[in-house]
Amino acid sequence: MKYYDEESYRFHKNDVADKCFCCGQTAPRLLILRHIESNMLVHLCPECMVDNSSDYLLDNTRPWLGGRGTCK
Ligand SMILES: [Zn+2]
Fold it and tell me: Rounded to two decimals, what is the model's pTM?
């Protein structure tokens, strides 16, 4: 399927690609999650993802880039 629903893949207007949406820090590795409240995608650092896991969903339509225990 080539069609892809752009509406579902919009990033939050306050999201910055190389910063964590939650804490605003630049992190070596950011994860793309869905902000449940706005239903938009945001970048989060691993710490915020863990701390705020009830507010964000892992967007499983994208590959999971995390490597357990790897620190880059
Ligand atoms: Zn963060």
Answer: 0.73
* Total tally of structural domains belonging to the chain: 1
Cα-to-centroid distance, 4 and ligand 1 (Å): 29
Is 69 among the domain residues? no
- Determine, yes or no, domain membership for 24: yes
Q: Is residue 19 part of a domain?
A: yes
19 CA to middle of ligand 1, Å?
8
Cα 7 from Cα 62, distance rounded (Å): 15
**Considering Cα of 6, then 9, then 13, then 15, what sign does the dihedral take?**
negative
Q: What is the pLDDT of residues 34-67, one digit of tens each?
A: 999 999 999 999 999 999 999 999 866 555 555 5
- Report CA(21)–ligand 1 centroid distance (Å): 7
Distance of CA 7 from the midpoint of ligand 1 (Å): 25
Q: Is residue 41 part of a domain?
A: yes
